[in-house]
Amino acid sequence: MQNKSRFEKLRVKAQNMKNFVYVRHERFPELDLGLHEEEFLYQLAKINPTNLFLGKFSKNDVENTLKETGLWNLLIEKGFRNLILHIDASNVLEHRLIIYDGEINSDRLLIEVRLREALLRPKKCFVPGMEHIRDVPMILIDWLTLQDPTKDFTPDKPRLVHQRKPGLGIFYDFAGLVDLLAKAAGKEGVMDIPEHYHGALFYSRFFHFWEPDMEGKLRAMMRDFASLPLHKATWAVFLDCCINSNTGKVDKWQPGEQIKPVSDQIKAYFRHPEYEEQVDRATRSFRFHIDESKLEKALAEYTDTI
User: Fold this and answer.
1) Local confidence band at 286 (pLDDT 50, 70, 90 cut-offs)
2) Residue 85: which domain range?
3) Measured between alpha carbons, how far is 153 from 142 in angstroms, rounded to an integer?
4) Into how many domains does the chain fold?
5) Could you tell me which residues come within 8 angstroms of residue 108 by beta carbon, excluding any fewer than 6 positions away?
6) CA-CA-CA-CA torsion for 88, 204, 23, 90, nearest 10 degrees?
7) Rounded to an integer, what distance in angstroms lies between the CA atom of residue 6 and that of residue 232?
8) Are residues 29 and 135 in contact, defined by beta-carbon separation less than 8 angstroms?
């Protein structure tokens, strides 16, 4: 049943892709005979007898990387002094990295990330001259939780859409860790399809939408909502209270693939003058505002169901 659930998640994730096709699970684009025995066995037979995270990293490797990047000590400084790292790479389709505080219990969960290795093929290239980009090995983020189980929401730090607990405030530190793992695993990028406006905003520091118009739309939202509290903006988008000022109609959140480039060719795509020109043009063309009265009513009705 668990496997069926993960296959279903893969199917839904693939359906949400607008500009890419999920080709297959893949670690390397071609067979590499220079790997050590466990890595070769994982690549060739798609089995993982020693629980290698992303087919390459032992639990000790991951813990050492957490310490080297400072993320481990950052959690300790926040008061979590009995960290427990759990790695689950038993399912080749999805690998999980989980950190608990004190005990392995959902009430003590700090971090959970579920990653998938995928070979992805662009349906469309929006930048002339970059059509040579074909099958791209990436890490696909299926799920990410960074939360402080010891705290509750307050008027100063209200709930964002679908949050269970307040965040840890370590998103950018954790994004750096995933970037390191992607490079070490030989990937060309890290991809997410953000479900909510605030997720895309957080990712936007390092990630860019493959589609320039979507990148421009996000930047326009960030510009037009800059004076609003984040929780108000993200709830407005989620509850269909974000209005396209040019049309007067609700602008529904329908994001595409947001990518952190790792390889030179993916970096070149996002740095291309034509990409930036299209993004700038889209940013200037979009204008947004919030339907305040609709939001107040919708938020009151929705919070009653939380």
Assistant:
1) very high
2) 2-303
3) 25
4) 1
5) 100, 101, 102, 149
6) 0
7) 33
8) yes
* Residue count (the chain): 306
User: CB–CB of 137/28 below 8 Å?
Assistant: yes
Q: How large is the C-alpha radius of gyration of the chain?
A: 20
DSSP the chain: -HHHHHHHHHHHHHHT-SSEEEEEE-S-SS--TTS-HHHHHHHHH---TT--BTTTB-HHHHHHHHHHTTHHHHHHHTT--SEEEEEE--STT-EEEEEEESSS-GGGEEEEEEEEEEEEEES---STT-TT--SEEEEEEEEEEEB-TT----SSSPPPTT-SS-B-S-HHHHHHHHHHHHHHTT-SEEEE--SSHHHHHHHTTT-EESSHHHHHHHHHHHHHTTTS-HHHHHHHHHTT-EEETTTTEE-------EEEE-SHHHHHHHH-HHHHHHHHHHHHH--EEE-HHHHHHHHHHHHTT-
CB atoms within 10 A of CB 178: 19
What are the tokens at 90? 């038993």
Instruction: Give pLDDT tens digits for 88-129.
Output: 987 777 899 999 999 999 999 999 999 988 899 999 999 999
Tokens of 268: 């070149």
Specify the pLDDT at position 11: 58
Burial of 207 (0-12, 13-18, 19+ CB in 10 A): buried
